[in-house]
């Protein structure tokens, strides 16, 4: 009887050992990181300088304002060195760590409009003017993943 009891205990210990190692294998490998909003931009022929000036002036200023408010963590302009047909020339990247609530979005919009000192109709007009120098190809929202080491 003692041998049977020891055998049962042995089987139970083996099962617990194997099940706990399989549970450990099911742990998440990654932890979530920052969000990366990536806008793909194709620049019209002969418009590089015009668009670069817009990015260096208005766009950059707007990004710096958002960064000063801690709405975003970072922003980048990335150039596609060997762009193939149909690929973007530039990627505009905005990095942030959390989504704004609806209330925060409203508040941010109000603050940004006060800071920009322009009307919504004027901003729409300027955006339409930029359509002559560049084409927004796509927007992607990516999330960085970090290994859990």
TrEMBL record:
It comes from the Bacteria. Keywords: Signal. Residues 1-25 form the signal peptide. The keyword Signal applies. The keyword Signal applies. This is NIPSNAP domain-containing protein. It comes from Aliiglaciecola lipolytica E3.
């Amino acid at each position: 009887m003692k041998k049977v009891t020891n055998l049962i205990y042995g089987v139970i210990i083996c099962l617990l050992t194997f099940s706990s190692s399989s549970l450990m294998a099911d742990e998440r490998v990654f932890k979530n990181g920052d969000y990366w909003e990536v806008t793909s931009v194709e620049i019209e022929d002969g418009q590089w300088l015009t668009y670069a000036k817009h990015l260096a002036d208005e766009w950059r200023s707007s990004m710096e304002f958002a960064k000063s408010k801690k709405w975003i963590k970072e922003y980048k302009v990335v150039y596609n060195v060997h762009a193939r047909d149909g690929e973007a020339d530039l990627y505009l990247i905005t990095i942030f760590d959390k989504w704004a609530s609806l209330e925060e979005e409203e508040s941010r919009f109000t603050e940004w409009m006060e800071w920009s000192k322009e009307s919504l109709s004027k901003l729409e007009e300027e955006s339409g003017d930029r359509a002559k120098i560049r084409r927004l190809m796509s927007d992607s929202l990516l999330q960085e993943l970090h290994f859990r080491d």
